[in-house]
Amino acid sequence: MLSSRCQCPTHSHTYSQAPGPSPGETTDYAFEDLQNMGAKSVCLMTDKNLSRLPPVQIVMDSLSKNGISFQVYDDVRVEPTDGSFMDAIEFAKKGAFDAYVAVGGGSTMDTCKAANLYASSPHSEFLDYVNAPIGKGKPVTVPLKPLIAVPTTSGTGSETTGVAIFDYEHLKVKTGIASRAIKPTLGLVDPLHTLHMPCQVVANSGFDVLCHALESYTAIPYSMRAPCPSNPIQRPAYQGSNPISDIWAVHALRIVAKYLKRAVRNPDDLEARSKMHLASAFAGIGFGNAGVHLCHGMSYPISGLVKTYKAKEYNVDHPLVPHGLSVVLTSPAVFTFTAQMFPERHLKTAEILGVNLYPGSVALQGANIRTAKTQDAGPVLADALRKFLFDLNVDDGLAALGYSKDDIPALVKGTLPQLPM
Amino acid sequence: MLSSRCQCPTHSHTYSQAPGPSPGETTDYAFEDLQNMGAKSVCLMTDKNLSRLPPVQIVMDSLSKNGISFQVYDDVRVEPTDGSFMDAIEFAKKGAFDAYVAVGGGSTMDTCKAANLYASSPHSEFLDYVNAPIGKGKPVTVPLKPLIAVPTTSGTGSETTGVAIFDYEHLKVKTGIASRAIKPTLGLVDPLHTLHMPCQVVANSGFDVLCHALESYTAIPYSMRAPCPSNPIQRPAYQGSNPISDIWAVHALRIVAKYLKRAVRNPDDLEARSKMHLASAFAGIGFGNAGVHLCHGMSYPISGLVKTYKAKEYNVDHPLVPHGLSVVLTSPAVFTFTAQMFPERHLKTAEILGVNLYPGSVALQGANIRTAKTQDAGPVLADALRKFLFDLNVDDGLAALGYSKDDIPALVKGTLPQLPM
């Protein structure tokens, strides 16, 4: 049996340049792809931590080797804001690049998507493409430059989605830009880039995968949403659960159930880290079409209104609730609430997470008798989630992040602009 | 229990204009998509049978309503040849279109892909892009025009793939063009377009889905193929089984196992026909990346060397072995042969097709004892396939198509150029 204690040697900082397998061959390919696209002037976006580490170094070497000129922007903010997006956009506008490469987690990929969009649409106001009601939510009709996304965490799935999330500081809420036009041209999902992630980063980003899968699978089906947009260009990026997103959600959830604990507990477990890196992309393909709901909607004020909480193992100079943690903490309550709408789907996910829905039954000509009832679906799934989080030593509820009952009105106020997602 | 007799009222021709639900709203959207793409002069490709039927009529009405000028090419040949491809290419070159719409089965979509490719690359010789060893297999580096594919059969999955198959008449073999560049921009998978399909067309196209799923799931894994191409633009369209294609193969196979017989037997079973239409696209996404192997490789001479066999319910003026039939007839023999390589995968597919791998076992603390052994995997799957085909009254073996032992050398000769696929 695996120990429940983290064996990760890299507690004190976000990434360590540990010896081990070198990511390389796959990453090299991407820059031949860039060359094939005719790229001559590339913008490489990353953050300060990563800029000194192998995933970025390999990209730079590969660009140089292939004779592609590039400039590095390493001022990406972990949990970006409108201000940090703007800074990256200015850099992109000045550079007049013909392709982009984003190496990092969701913050980096999202910042790069925004930079590509606004540099390709230089006369737009920032709020033009930001989701309504905060922005104008205009459809994107300009052509963008190619963007290659190289994820180095296993949670966001941003390499597969047309979404870029940021804190809108003026209102202290998270919002985003959502359009299939900003989806990366190519995602390079190389598990060797994840071997340097500290345990807590693996856990929190894994929680994001868990909730992407659970929320997209339990989202309102596309066929129940109305009215239909009058023109396909006005279709939202998030269209509701559908037969394709369901496949990805269920498959990603099976991987999380089987491999997340292993990936957290042992940084050398290449199989588990590889599977979680794929699960992140798989869940991204699913929720990127279906959407997410309450866990994500409520997570934005939970991280946006942070006071002093600083996540362990994140090397940042500002208070930070990691996105995956802010998402997963409310999940037992959320699914208790949503189960009444689609109880069978909630039971199915509980079963994937290890709940035996047939306790004490006997095989009777192949047909077991299920004892779990649909009215118990919410509590059954909530219990499964609490056990899963307990096994991974997750902080217990919003109080652990420094919130009290007095914060509820502000948390509610910050949630409402996210809905409907 | 479902009757094994076909209840289809449209035995005598390929499509009947039966009353019933009208496909429309979804199809309308596609042409707003065309308008959003800035299309002003569209090439609509179809075949003579379909040109008078609702799927094509709706497209024409929609184009007219949206003020998009278009020309119709309805000379697509069912099971196209290099000659019929060339004819369509000439039409496309003369028209100088800025977008394409293909309404029909695989033959129409494949013809349209080829027309788009060569009209976009007017100085290329026909064999430049045809797969080696018959053609030169050059990578596609020219930009193509947008192509919207509207499948009206549920088998080919061509709306999702970068492949176009044709008979190369000079050598009497099938070959094709394979490049992600010819993949349709948009596939419009509207199940209402399938309600007019005669039973035999549903069955044969369903067999194609069955074999796409089985072959791509049992194809040599991408990680066992060597050498890697030196540049990503030389990556083959078919890359071997992989974690993404596996998901689609298994999911499509589950749908075939559950719904194909219902879809064949009752043309009004909208649920079954809808599921099969999705399964066709799902299997297409899988095999379009992973590839197929022996069933498809051997099918090409089986249909290419046809003497007098004319499939029931296909309204054509030439001898014809429908593609799906030519593929599935060899499947019991093929999987008996290939099972030694990946026995667990063969057993898993047999189980999905209804084989009980745990006969006579008892549930023992949740762990059943599997009695099927890996060395039996081939015969187990072959028996499952024979039963499946028997239930659908499929012609028994190659003799039923008019082949004898004397034809074996020619069939082998026609198979060899297909490998490796």
Automatic annotation (TrEMBL), chains A, B:
Gene3D superfamilies per record: 3.40.50.1970, Dehydroquinate synthase-like - alpha domain
Compositional bias of kind Polar residues: 1-19
Top-rank lineage group of the source organism: Eukaryota
Enzyme class: oxidoreductase
Pfam families: ADH_Fe_C (PF25137), Fe-ADH (PF00465)
UniProt keyword annotation of Oxidoreductase present: yes
Every Fe-containing alcohol dehydrogenase-like C-terminal domain range: 240-414
Catalysed reactions listed for this entry: (S)-3-hydroxybutanoate + 2-oxoglutarate = (R)-2-hydroxyglutarate + acetoacetate; 4-hydroxybutanoate + 2-oxoglutarate = (R)-2-hydroxyglutarate + succinate semialdehyde
Domain Alcohol dehydrogenase iron-type/glycerol dehydrogenase GldA residues, every copy: 32-191
EC number(s) per entry: 1.1.99.24
Assigned protein family: Belongs to the iron-containing alcohol dehydrogenase family. Hydroxyacid-oxoacid transhydrogenase subfamily.
Protein name: Hydroxyacid-oxoacid transhydrogenase, mitochondrial
Organism from which the protein derives: Apodemus speciosus (Large Japanese field mouse)
